[in-house]
Write a structure and sequence with these properties.
Beta-Lactamase, 4 strands
Amino acid sequence: MTSRELLDELAAQEQRLVFDSFDEQTAWAVGVALRDAALAAGLPVAISVRRNGQRLFHAALPGASADNDGWLERKCAVVDRYGRSSLRVGEEFRVDGKSFDADARLDPSRYAAHGGAFPVLVRDTGCVGTIAVSGLPQLDDHRLVVEVLEAFLSERR
């Protein structure tokens, strides 16, 4: 897959994976679905679900560390700032021949445009939070979130 094809796929995911509403109960259910999927696969990840900056779900599975919590914060900060997945933001910089760390003019100790944080998008509202995973290579972090979101949202339609 080319970088342009990846960008197109990332944009399509954000158009497709939209909630009708997102409250505390929904955040908990998404977090539990992510935890269950990660546990079943034996993945050493930390998981965060936030709305408007408030953490509504957090879990650290066997093998995850406090470093993963730091990555969650930094990746979620990118989603909060740009309203797009952390992987998409990083890829947009790479496609333009730039480096997020050097060219975004943001403190890399606070922002990480690496895969794993996805925007909580609510229909007719926009981005209201983040769903994030850290502990795997960035494409795998992103893929886990997307696969769980696709299953979660398809069950509710």
